[in-house]
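Entry: ParA family partition ATPase
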Amino acid sequence: MKIICVANQKGGIGKSTLITVLAGALAADYCYRVLVVDADSQQTLAGVRLTNDQPSVELEREAGTLAEPAFPYALESVGMGQVYDRLDEISDDYDVVFIDVPGRSDDTAMIDVLSGANVVLVPVGASDAERLATISFMQLLQEISRLSREQGLDFQFFGVHSHRTNLKEEKDMDEFTDALGLPRLQASLRQLGCYKRLSTRYSYLNPAYRRAVGADASVEAEVRALCDELIARAGLTAELVS
């Protein structure tokens, strides 16, 4: 089981978007057994499933048209202090676990969750506030990475653009993080309206869903590139696929 945290101490930077895009595609199209743990007190992902998705599931169930399973991946709300107790109980049931964590990085529970992950993905932005928060957070992860290497633990972290707009500031951010030796994924998601219509039922690699949210064919290419790079970087080999 690979544990992937998506974290940044700056709010509104695209954590939930990144998780829903990756989890949906890896579960529905790459056939991994995926669990999403919503450990953020805001409960964004749990709220999306309850508010956006569950009503349509119930309507289809009542009409007898629901195709089971209703969701491609499991989603659980777990407190920060109980995350790994829960994962220990179900470690044989999943190939990939995504953990959505709150923005704060100054408490013990947060450090413990980050340190126990195999991969931390850090959504990055280009504004001054986003840059300062992201650099500070990634430097914390750099220290966790150093300690993990000393203990022989599997730990990596990567910056990833979750709403790229191709502004000059984004190029400056890339060059700055590269100069600091902070790793980043080459694949990214653009700032598109289709990603604002979050759903935990569908994958952006599903043509019918892309049409429903107004996404063009280029969205499939960028989502697949992001999934493929994450699979390679995280060591999610074919042997893990169900």
